[in-house]
Amino acid sequence: MVKKVAHIAIAVPSVDEAARFYTEQLGLKLERKETVPHRKVTVGFIQVGDTKVELVQPDTPDAPVAGFLAVRGPGLHHICFEVDDVDAEFQRLKAAGVRIVDPEPQAGAGGTRAFFIHPKSTGGVLIELSQRV
Ligand code: CO
C-alpha cells in the first residue's frame, strides 16, 4: 500500500549548487548528503513539510543519472512513494507485467529499500517505491 510521497527527486550536476536555490531563495534547509555507491550518486535531502526534495548528482560519468543529465538536462528525475512492504509491491507489480528497472529491491538512501518502475509503465515518469527499514 502506498502511504505518501516520500520524495521528489531532481537530477542536478551538483547538489551543493542546486541546493542554494532552496536554501537561499526558499528558506529551506539541506538536511543531509549521502552517497549511494551502487547507483553512483550523491543525494542531498531538503525537508519540505511532510515530504522531501532529493537532489541527485552523478558521481561518475557512467552513473545512470549522468546519462539522464546528458540527454534531458537538469530537472525532474523521479517521484518516490513510500510503501509499507516493498517486497510485496515488487512481486505484485512484476506479476502484473509492470516494467521494473531493478532486478530486486535495493538498499537506498536514508536507510530504505527501494526499486524503480520504468516510465513506460507509468505514463512517462520514473517512479520509485521505497520502504523504511
Ligand atoms: Co529517490
From TrEMBL:
The enzyme's E.C. designation: 5.1.99.1
Record GO biological process: L-methylmalonyl-CoA metabolic process
Keywords, A to Z? Answer: Isomerase, Metal-binding
- The VOC domain covers 4-132
Which InterPro entries is this protein grouped with?
Answer: Glyas_Bleomycin-R_OHBP_Dase, MeMalonyl-CoA_epimerase, MMCE/EMCE_epimerase, VOC_core
Q: Quick check: keyword Isomerase in the entry? A: yes
Question: Which PANTHER family does this chain map to?
Answer: METHYLMALONYL-COA EPIMERASE (PTHR43048), METHYLMALONYL-COA EPIMERASE, MITOCHONDRIAL (PTHR43048:SF3)
Q: Does the keyword tRNA processing apply?
A: no
What family classification does the UniProt entry report for this protein? Belongs to the methylmalonyl-CoA epimerase family.
Q: Which Gene3D superfamilies match?
A: 2,3-Dihydroxybiphenyl 1,2-Dioxygenase, domain 1
Source organism superkingdom: Bacteria
A Pfam family assignment:
Glyoxalase_4
Bilayer-crossing regions: none
Primary gene name? mce
Instruction: Drop me one GO molecular function for this one.
Output: metal ion binding
Protein name per UniProt: Methylmalonyl-CoA epimerase
